[in-house]
Design brief:
Length: about 425
């Protein structure tokens, strides 16, 4: 037996109430005329407390009523062999299709969690391009869920898709990618021209140098910059800094911290951030210099991803930090829909598994439970309790009547 609302079993504590009342209750002493004691000095009537259980049958019935009510409220479900067979005879299936198979599998697992009792199975339908599914996606599926993969028609032998544009020293360039057994990227003509780097200040020259190596063009509304210590904008950036609320900024900071080029170049820098304000929230350290001292921190400043660095603008690490920040403002997502190679059938077969036995039902998935039988039992016990009380009252009345009749016989002078 399982309970759908086990917290209701706490009501069984109420079983102590009838016992306590039975033991602790006080009964007023009854006044009974008794002629042979009329010359005894009268005393004050007192309440008598009972310390032994009386009428155990009635008490047991009352306890059973409370127990039946508590069990009914807990939602009992007797897991019989017939019910198990019925649950295992049906399979609840969730179908996953679309481009984002990883998210689809997670959604299907949650959908099956609240399905009616039965075995669980997830069916994935796709062409299964490489990278669309990973082992971690499979491990996230509960072990008693079945997994079945149905391959859709194979993708074409080649595809051509648009890639996010890049910034170059000659301006912004569009790009297309052709994918077959190899990958070819072509750039379109430059849109506009960048300003020459001659005569620029250090930070502008740094930007020109980074752009000359090609970085992603920023998505509308996204901006990123690097500020060096000693510049006029540092104090304003510290005063206006706020926690990062946009996902692209958080992803960009994580990418900077993982960038192997940034980490290698930072280890050669002897400078360090000395302002304690740049080492606490909302600022996040993204690079450490020689001897592990903080070299650069990032935060959101008026909606822009801003990196404050202790390295001078001419340093290699400053250029690498700016490149990472500018790429974060662009669209760097991989185009999985362009892939023409697919996950091998052998790998899909390794991930395939049959559904396990039906798990115990959840509160929201049970179609019928057994609480009605406990309510019926409680009603029957209530009727029995009423009958026992009626019988006890009748017995008490008969006993008192017999006593009074006996006393009357003793007082009658005609009785020998």
């Amino acid at each position: 037996m399982i309970f759908l609302f086990p917290a209701a079993l706490a009501g069984l504590v109420a079983l102590a109430a009838p016992i306590a009342i039975h033991i602790l209750a006080k009964r007023r002493a009854a006044r009974i005329p008794f002629p042979t004691l009329r010359f005894i000095q009268p005393g004050r009537l007192v309440s008598v407390r009972r310390h032994v259980l009386e009428d155990a049958a009635l008490l047991a019935v009352r306890l059973s009523i409370l127990a039946a009510a508590a069990m009914a409220l807990a939602g009992p479900l007797v897991v019989t062999g017939g019910r198990k067979s019925a649950w295992n005879a049906r399979t609840q299936t969730a179908v996953v299709e679309g481009d984002d198979l990883s998210a689809g599998i997670r959604h299907a697992a949650l959908e099956l969690l609240v399905a009616a009792p039965g075995r669980r199975e997830i069916v994935v339908r796709s062409t299964f391009p490489i990278g669309s599914l990973r082992r971690n996606d499979i491990l996230a599926v509960p072990g008693d869920y079945g997994l079945r993969f149905e391959r859709m028609p194979a993708p074409p032998p080649s595809r051509t898709v648009e890639l996010p544009p890049v910034l170059t020293d000659s301006g912004e360039r569009s790009r297309t990618m052709t994918v077959d057994r190899g990958t070819t990227v072509r750039e379109g003509a430059a849109i506009g021209r960048a300003s020459p780097s001659d005569g620029l200040d250090a930070l502008d020259a740094l930007t020109a140098a980074v752009v000359s190596q090609r970085v992603l063009a920023p998505i509308s509304g996204r901006t990123a910059r690097v500020v060096s210590i000693g510049g006029a904008d540092v104090e304003a950036a510290i005063a206006s800094a706020s926690p990062m609320r946009d996902a692209w900024m958080a992803d960009g900071v994580a990418a900077m911290a993982r960038d192997t080029d940034v980490r290698a170049a930072a280890k050669t820098a002897t400078e360090a951030l000395d302002d304690s304000r740049l080492l606490q929230s909302p600022w996040i350290v993204v690079a450490s210099g020689a001897r592990g001292r903080p070299l650069a921190s990032a935060a959101s400043v008026q909606g822009s991803l801003t990196v404050v660095s202790a390295a001078p603008p001419a340093a290699l690490v400053s250029a690498l930090l700016l490149r990472a920040a500018m790429n974060a403002a662009g669209d760097g997502r991989a185009r999985a829909d362009a892939e023409v190679l697919t996950i091998p059938d052998s790998q899909l077969q390794e991930w395939t598994r049959a559904p396990g036995p039906a798990p115990p039902p959840r509160i929201e998935t049970v179609e019928h439970d057994d609480r009605r039988w406990f309510w019926i039992g409680a009603l029957v016990l209530l009727a029995m309790e009423w009958w026992l009380r009626s019988r006890a009252r009748s017995s008490g009345a008969d006993a008192r009547g017999a006593m009074v009749a006996g006393e009357g016989l003793r007082e009658d002078p005609r009785v020998a």
